[in-house]
Design goal:
single chain, alpha/beta, 6-stranded mixed sheet, about 35% helix
Length: about 280
């Protein structure tokens, strides 16, 4: 196990913010996004999933907002490229709705549309990977990892479009490198994590050392909204925004909730109205 200085398992002297952070794991998508702001963490995850130990991330963007020609928006958890120009999109999904095969197809196509610049030929499209890290076995074949690429049916050969989709099934454990990475995804205590890179970043965040301004409020806001969302799901699973996982949609979701209830309430007021205790 890696040695992580400064992180204590005792919660007696932690602030409410730190107590909340101490419960988060990397499979909490909003926490993963913050962790991935450290390029070394993105690099390590890609190296492990793709089995490319020499992979180096050159550029990356968290929560990239891409739109198609009709204005349909797509928020990407992490969009990055390596030193060879290969493009990667990493997504964390805890429900089947957010990781359907057609969603993966849409991610891949929209990324291509935004990468190819005016005046460039299609041959300038780089190799790309859309990677879904899923809490459930979306494809239901009991595999730990799925590599999806187009093939020529008549010959069985790979179609060389250099666009690949990967599903990592985080519900399947093992003692191989992927299995160890998955264990880290579900570990709260950085002292018990196997990866030194991930452990250091998680420990720093949970000690509130490297949380950027506004990030902690966003995490809390998301937690409070998720609690309200679960309340509405229990009443009516078809309620608008019940399936949203996108933090940027939260203000719209809250307005939708308030519009239905016909109450002009603030976030704190709606929490009190439903007797929901704020995270801090």
């Amino acid at each position: 196990m890696p040695s992580v200085k400064g992180f204590s398992k005792s919660k007696e002297h932690l602030s409410p913010e730190q107590k909340f952070l101490s419960e988060l794991i990397l499979m909490d998508d909003i926490f993963m996004r913050i962790v991935l702001k450290d390029r070394k963490c993105t690099e390590f995850i890609l190296q492990t999933i793709l089995q490319k130990p020499d992979l180096k991330v050159k550029t990356q963007s968290i929560q990239s907002d891409l739109k198609n020609l009709q204005g349909r928006s797509l928020i990407l958890d992490c969009l990055c490229s390596d030193t060879k120009g290969t493009v990667y999109n990493i997504e964390v999904q805890n429900d089947s709705h957010g990781a359907s095969p057609k969603r993966a197809r849409y991610h891949s196509g929209l990324i291509d549309m935004h990468i190819l610049k005016k005046g460039k030929t299609f041959e300038n499209l780089p190799e790309s990977y859309v990677i879904f890290i899923c809490a459930k076995d979306i494809l239901k074949e009991n595999k730990q990892i799925y590599h999806i690429s187009r093939i020529i049916q008549e010959s069985g050969k790979k179609f060389p479009d250099q666009a690949e989709i990967i599903y990592l099934n985080a519900s399947k454990s093992s003692d191989n490198e992927l299995g160890i990475l998955i264990k880290d995804f579900y570990t709260k205590d950085p002292k018990k994590m196997h990866s030194r890179v991930l452990a250091k970043r998680v420990a720093d965040l949970k000690e509130n050392k490297n949380v950027e301004k506004g990030e902690l409020s966003l995490i809390c806001y998301y937690k409070n909204f998720r609690t309200i969302k679960h309340f509405f799901v229990a009443i009516d699973p078809g309620f608008p925004y019940c399936k949203t996982q996108n933090v940027l949609e939260i203000p719209h979701a809250l307005r939708a909730i308030l519009a239905v209830k016909k109450k002009a309430l603030s976030l704190n007021e709606i929490l009190c109205f439903y007797r929901i205790k704020p995270c801090f």
